[in-house]
Structures are given as C-alpha cells and as structure tokens.
C-alpha cells in the first residue's frame, strides 16, 4: 500500500511539473531539461571566475564579487525560469563589466559605488520599459531580415569566441587574424573537441556537449600548455564554504551619481543602449533557435522575459556587480534539448552549488568549453534557411550583419549596420520603413556617436 501511495504521489508531482513547464507541449522531458541545463551552466560557468577578476580591478572586494555574481545570476535565471518559462540563463554581462572597471572607474575616476548607482538606475529603466510593453514593441518593430541576421550573427559571435578562447584564432600582423599553427596542446585539444562534438551530434548522442567538456577536461590532465603546466589543474580542495563579505551589499551611491550626472550621462546612455539591444537580440536569437517564437514571430511571455534581466540587474547592483544580461551560451542548452524554464532551474541549482565548489569550476580549461561554443554557433546558422533571396533588401542586411560580426565581433555595430542597410534599401525603392524603424536608426546613430566619444 505504501509503495502504491508513493507511486501515486510521484505521478501527481510529475503531472504538475509537466503542466507548469509545459514539458509535453514543447516535446521535452525532465531528464532532457536537466541535462541541457547542465550544458548551459558548463558553457557559462567561466563568469563565476572572470567577472570578479575584472571588477576587482576597480578596487572592489573579490570575495564579495564572487557572491554578487552568483546571487545575481541565480535571481535573474530563476525569474526567467519560473515567470517566463524560457530556457535562457542570465548573469553579469561580459563587456559592460570591462567598461565599468576600465572606463567608468579607471579612466573617468568615478568611485565604483557611484557606478553601481548608475547600474541600478539603468535597470529600473529596463524594468519600466519591460513592464509597459515598450520593449516588446521595439523588438516587434525589427524587420524580419534583421531578426534573421540577429540570430545568425549571434551564432557567428559564439563560434568566434570559441575559436579565440580555444587558441585556434590568433593575431596576425599581415591579415590581423589567422588560424593557429597548432604549436601547443591546447589548440590541438580544441580542434579534436570540435571534431568529437560534430561526431556526437551526427550520432545524436544525448549530452554530446557535456561529454565533450568532460572528455577534453580529462585529457587536459595529461597535456601541457605552452608554459609547461598541465592544461587541467586539479585544485587542492574541491569544496569550500563561501566567504561572506558585506562591503558591496547596498554600497551604491545615488547621491554621488547625481553629483556626477553630467559626467556620467554619456556612459549611462551607452550602458542603456548596449544592454537593451544586445540583451534583447540574445534572447531573440536563443528563442528563435529553440523554435519557440510565436506565430507572429515574437517572443513568448515577452514581458516576463524582458523583466528578468532588469530585475537581475537591480539585484546585481544591490549585491555589488555590473549589469545582468541574457547569455548567448544558453544556446548550448537549447541545442542539447532545452525548451522550458526547467533547464533554468538546473542552472540555478548549479550556480548555488558553485558557491561551495568554485575551485572545481576553475579546473575546466578554456579548450574544453571552446569546442562547444564553436558547434553551438554553427548550429545557430540554420536561420539562413529562412533567408528570402528574392530581393536585395531581404538578404543584404543579414549578410552584412554576419560579415561585420565575423570580422570585428561587435554585435551592436552589426545590428546598427543591418538596420541602416534595410532602411536605405527600402528608401531606394521609395518605400517607408516605418516610424519605429526610423526611431531605431536614430538610436543607433546616437549609440555609435557615444561609442566614439567613449573610445
């Protein structure tokens, strides 16, 4: 009788889980979602180590930054998982953390407490735009060629990151960039990992990305880098209690922001624009890759999805870190089968576990995650199948975006040029692109001007 009761309770729990996350409706299972969530976390776990290292250069406490990074990532991803039910993970964004530390604090001499106040105010603007549906309207105004270009450009960007972090893409005096001469073990492992991942994907092996990461990490124990040290260095202690630090908690200085308002206005607008459009484009690209767009081509649960990064940034500013945004590495989970917020819960759980095993995460070498990023980026290029080649205004903007992203790895510039190209080509046909598109063009002109002013 007791076994029957347990079985009934298990069935009811499973039914509730299926109903809440719409697992059956989206053609997935709890096991697949959890495995995909593990893949997403493995691809983005570097942020736990990298973000504190970058922001510590601004004079902030590294232990406090470690906690702030994880807490903000957990909070934002939890909102995305439970409210929006989408397989998108969020964390403090790369790029803005560098601008925060090197430009705002380093070059402009603004205290980091004042910089956190700027992050908070930007987050509140994000939140207002999200809850009033303005952000969804702006996204809906993107022309279809630009939407396709966003997905494919993100794919190229992810692949570019993988090639660079894995040592296959190197600087070259003659051609600026070149393929590695494969002089070291790391580049060989990266190349082998790419081929292994491709083989596993063809064979439809479950957990292909995780298997690649584990395989290359293990091989790294026996391979040495250019410095003579093993590529995978096991930590002395795998687990440890997090070091609590209250230095960053509620440290933001709103009064200082008002005092330095005119000085900070350009960089504030820069943060607002880059996070608004970059984060939005990332969400759209991930969901498009998952095949979850609405019949109208919009994001499902757009208000909740857009509010997630805004709320995450609010919590991040309070905890003591830079702006939180959607992570392109979420596509790794999507390619592994993620279709619901249940995969996000797995990411949240692993971030929570990371509080106690940060040394273990640092043991995963870049050459282990690089192959996954490369293959994920290539998989995102399947959006090119939807490209309409009947007229230049349909295929030139997305291809221009791909070219710019591949050459300079700047998604914002690629998005701006895609919109500009679409507008002028419609104008050449004496067609009005729409007031919202013209407004976006104006915003991108402002962004490029601010970008130039900030160096």
Quick structural overview:
Helix content is about 65%, strand content about 5%. The protein is mainly α.
The tally of domains stands at 1
Specify the biggest β-sheet. 2 strands, antiparallel
Write down the secondary-structure element order: HHHHEHHHHEEHHHHHEHHHHHHH
The coarse silhouette is globular
Strand order of the largest sheet: 1-4
Q: How many individual β-strands?
A: 4
| Residues in helices, as a percent range | 55-70%
Cα distance, first to last residue? Answer: 72 Å
Task: Summarize this structure as a short list of keywords or feature phrases.
455 residues, mainly alpha, 20 helices, 4 strands, 67% helix
Structure explained in plain terms:
This protein has one domain. 67% of the residues lie in helices and 3% in strands. The chain has helices at residues 2-21, 30-44, 47-55, 62-84, 96-107, 112-131, 134-140, 144-165, 185-202, 208-219, 254-259, 261-290, 302-319, 330-335, 342-354, 358-361, 366-380, 392-408, 411-428, 435-453; strands spanning 90-92, 169-172, 176-179, 324-326. A two-stranded antiparallel ribbon has the order 1-4.
Set out the fold topology.
Blueprint: H1 2-21, H2 30-44, H3 47-55, H4 62-84, E1 90-92, H5 96-107, H6 112-131, H7 134-140, H8 144-165, E2 169-172, E3 176-179, H9 185-202, H10 208-219, H11 254-259, H12 261-290, H13 302-319, E4 324-326, H14 330-335, H15 342-354, H16 358-361, H17 366-380, H18 392-408, H19 411-428, H20 435-453
Antiparallel strand pairs: 1-4, 2-3
């Amino acid at each position: 009788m007791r076994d029957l009761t347990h079985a009934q309770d298990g069935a009811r729990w499973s039914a509730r889980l299926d109903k809440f996350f719409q697992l059956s409706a989206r053609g997935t299972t709890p096991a697949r979602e959890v495995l995909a969530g593990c893949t997403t976390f493995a691809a983005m776990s570097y942020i736990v180590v990298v973000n504190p290292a970058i922001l510590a250069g601004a004079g902030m406490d590294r232990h406090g930054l470690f906690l702030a990074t994880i807490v903000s990532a957990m909070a934002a991803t939890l909102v995305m998982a439970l409210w929006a039910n989408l397989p998108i993970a969020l964390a403090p964004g790369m790029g803005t953390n560098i601008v925060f530390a090197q430009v705002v604090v380093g070059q402009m001499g603004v205290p980091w407490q004042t910089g956190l106040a700027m992050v908070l105010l930007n987050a509140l603007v994000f939140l207002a735009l999200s809850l009033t549906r303005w952000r969804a309207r702006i996204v809906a105004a993107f022309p279809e060629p630009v939407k396709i270009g966003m997905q494919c450009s993100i794919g190229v960007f992810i692949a570019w990151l993988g090639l660079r972090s894995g040592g296959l893409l190197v600087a070259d005096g003659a051609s600026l960039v070149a393929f590695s001469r494969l002089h070291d073990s790391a580049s060989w492992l990266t190349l082998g990992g790419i081929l292994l991942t491709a083989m596993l994907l063809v064979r439809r092996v479950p957990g292909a990305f995780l298997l690649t990461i584990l395989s290359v990490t293990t091989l790294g124990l026996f391979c040495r880098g250019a410095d003579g040290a093993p590529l995978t260095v096991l930590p002395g202690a795998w687990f440890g209690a997090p070091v609590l630090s209250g230095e960053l908690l509620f440290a933001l200085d709103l009064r200082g922001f008002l005092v330095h308002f005119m000085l900070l206005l350009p960089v504030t607008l820069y943060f607002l624009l880059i996070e608004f459009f970059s984060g939005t484009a990332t969400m759209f690209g991930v969901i498009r890759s998952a095949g979850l767009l609405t019949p109208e081509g919009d994001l499902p649960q757009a208000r909740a999805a857009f509010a997630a990064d805004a709320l995450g940034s609010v919590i991040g500013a309070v905890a003591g870190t830079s702006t939180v945004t959607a992570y392109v590495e979420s596509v790794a989970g999507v390619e592994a089968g993620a279709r619901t917020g249940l995969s996000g819960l797995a990411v949240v759980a692993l971030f929570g576990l990371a509080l106690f095993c940060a040394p273990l995460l640092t043991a995963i070498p870049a050459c282990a995650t690089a192959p996954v990023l490369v293959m994920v980026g290539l998989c995102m290029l399947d959006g090119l199948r939807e490209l309409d080649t009947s007229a230049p205004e349909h295929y030139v903007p997305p291809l221009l975006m791909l070219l710019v992203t591949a050459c300079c790895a700047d998604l914002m510039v690629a998005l701006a040029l895609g919109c500009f190209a679409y507008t002028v080509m419609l104008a050449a046909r004496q067609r009005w692109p729409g007031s919202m598109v013209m407004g976006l063009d104006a915003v991108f002109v402002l962004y490029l001007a601010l970008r130039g002013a900030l160096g």
